[in-house]
Amino acid sequence: xxxxxxxAGARVLVLGLCxxxxxxxxxxxxxEYVAVNRPAPDGxxxxxxxxxxxxVPGVQLDVNGPAIHGATAFENSYLLDGxxxxxxxxxxxxxxxxxxxxxxxxxxxxxxxxxxxxxxxGIIEADLRVEPSERLQGSIFGYWVPGALAASDVSGRGPLxxxxxxxxxxxxxxVRHRLSFFAGVAPALGRVEQTRTFQGAxxxxxxxxxxxxxxxxxxxxxxxxxxxxLSFITTPGFSRGDGRPTSEDVSPESEAPRELDSNASSVxxxxxxxxxxxxxxxxxxxxxxxxxxxxxxEGAGLEPGSVRAQDQLQANARxxxxxxxxxxxxxxxxxxxxxxxxxxxxxxSRQVLAGYVQDSWSFSNxxxxxxxxxxxxxxxxxxxxxxxxxxxxxxxxxxxxxLDPLANGRTRMFAHVAKYQSLVSPALLTSPVxxxxxxxxxxxxxxxxxxxxxxYELLSQVRTGASYTGRRLDSALQYLPHGEGTEVLLGxxxxxxxxxxxxxxxxxxxxTLWLDGNFxxxxxxxxxxxxxxxxxxxxxxxxxxxxxxxxxDTTPAELSDTRTVLPAxxxxxxxxxxxxxxxxxxxxxxxxxLSYLGASGTPREEGGxxxxxxxxxxxxxxxxxxxxxxxLEFSLDVFNLLDVQEDARWDGSTPLRLQAPRQVRLGAxxxxx
Length: 673
What we know:
Elements: E1 2-7, E2 10-15, E3 59-62, E4 65-68, E5 77-80, E6 83-84, E7 102-108, E8 123-128, E9 137-146, E10 160-175, E11 179-198, E12 201-223, E13 226-234, E14 237-241, E15 258-275, E16 280-295, E17 308-324, E18 328-343, E19 347-363, E20 367-382, E21 388-403, E22 411-421, E23 435-438, E24 446-459, E25 462-475, E26 478-481, E27 487-491, E28 506-519, E29 523-536, E30 542-543, E31 551-552, E32 564-565, E33 572-583, E34 588-599, E35 613-627, E36 630-639, E37 647-651, E38 654-658, E39 663-672
């Protein structure tokens, strides 16, 4: 399934299933006119790209990000212009850019080929905009979530005061037919009120977040067949607040404000060339990414190990050859290399070398065979002169088949099997809260997947389908009891030095039904229903208590030999989007969009489940053409219109996180092109 988002005139495609070029359905514009990119539960005002995943079947958006097909948000691979943006410590996205700066965005949830790797979840791939137009074009925008219109506290953190972002973009040609550029800047800020009560005394403070995103990209066309791209990104940020839940009984005198400064910056260079009448395509990419999160005030009372730094160098090359032989072939081969150095409690590094070959063979318009093989090898090094741990290289096969029995494009049946593997964070070797012994036979986390389905065109521009996705965890990475005191073993449960412990298991099964289409020129819709089951004893990567920013699998005490329902299990999920555009005059149009997200409850530790979560969102937009090349747009998004507050996650009998309350976002944009 695919969906499309439009921002500032740029189309952002969202891919829900990737089984090769023939298996992908057409794009739908339904999400252009519905409320998307709801405010983040952590109070961040950035309308980041990964939050758009909420509309894709098989994706659950939680407090850490998009959880895809039973995996956690830390198990995804995040790509920008073909290079990784993953935080090497947590696995999260270190550069969650505003959608204002993107030209394309793909959420590949399953069935991805050998050119994609380094993940046991999904692939989130974005491209930074660049404007080849000969005329200057750009936008000025602002979005605001006023606290006065919010219904209640923000996920237990306190009343919202304000949340919003604003900025501008500009692009165009610097040298006719040769040199073009894109630049954008977007400050964002948010404030949440915090009130503490201790022995009858109350104190009110504020938790503030401020960020600035600035991007620039140059495109130089050597000729029609060869291009060079150079981009620069920086995202400094600042947050202040005590970081405790509002329900915690804390003495106001002991409550020291906590400050964090953060910054992630990147420089990227890309070459794209075509040879043999563009039947042979070559892509070369190289990039450097730097990240640091540190206390803004040394006396802020932060936990040890809160200073995190990352220095990453990476490069890759991809060769694509298009040929006709017994059908049509799209052959790809490539190599990837990366070195990243992290600092948590001490310094560690990781080197990655990967390569792949794959072919997509289409024959007689009736079938497409997608076959590929990927190789990945990693090595870890902790500190200076402490030796290198080499993780054996793994061969990861991918095989898919797409059938069109009538060769008319109306019916597509597909199947895909694959083996996936994720990267190991070098920071796991240097946990700031434990003494770590590493199993010399350690292997990276891995999983296998089976996808089967069918898609059928009911009417022109209306398609429906059904699919099954099954994933099984093959190996996990955990801290396990070892020795005395706080000493732990970093190993694979049930394997190597940890062979005496139960093997980590996680099994995900899901059946999805969907309907996606345009009904006439004005009505757009997308409907999906997913029935899923998540069982096992290993829920996946989670933030480690006492070590800010470090994500690991479950603690040793939680690992058992009993397969049970995992905390993220939701047996039923319904997603519905409906919108209509109204042309009032030649210059003025309005649009109305409704979206519904329904999900059954998650398991409680004491038994039973939380209640169904129902979320109804409303979008109202209006656009007015000031002139043929300029347009003014306004929007009103109401998230959780009915202010339903179901408990989203429990610890025993205590809710840890509530459903996000009703919030209203006002938006305005001026476009010129």
